[in-house]
Each structure stands twice: as structure tokens, then as C-alpha cells.
Amino acid sequence: MLEILRSIQGSVRTQPGCVAFDIYSEQGPESAVLLIERWETEAALEAHLRSEIYRSILGAIELSGERPEIRFEHVSASRGMELIERLRSTGGVPDAGGSGVVVR
Prior knowledge:
Elements: H1 2-13, E1 18-26, E2 32-39, H2 42-50, H3 52-62, H4 81-90
Antiparallel strand pairs: 1-2
Helix pairs in contact: 1-3
């Protein structure tokens, strides 16, 4: 599975609208593979899902020993360090809604 995903990684990244195509693997008794794709628009994602290269991704998924978990998450806004700075310096209140943190 990893070989297939790594072999198409460069091709996917050059598709119009692709922001990221990152593969993470966990080693050990319960190894796991995490594939994170980010697309500029819904239309770019849909074009990718219809593409021949996505057929290769589906083929790799079929090699999984277990039923894979697949999720499509739509993010309408993203904030970074400016949110932390605003809240820490002014005592501001964050917007309502859920939050997630990714540190890079």
C-alpha cells in the first residue's frame, strides 16, 4: 500500500488545486497508514476523485487488512498564530464552534 501511495504522491501534488498529499505510517503490531489530502476547492477535490490516479489510491486502499476509515472534512476557515496572539494579548473570546490544533 505504501509503495503505491508513494509512487503517485508527486503526480497527485501536481494536480490542479492540490494543496497537500501527505502519507504517514505507524509501525508496530497495529500499524496504520494515514493519508491526508488538502484541496483548494470542492471542484478540485471532485475532479481528483474522478481521476484515473485516484483509481490507484482506491487500489491501494483495497490492500488494507481492515476496512479503512475514510473521512472528508470541509473547513471553511483556518487561523494560525494570530488567533493565539489576539487572545493572549487582549483577553479576547474565541469564536463559537469546535477547534483543532495542528502544529507544524
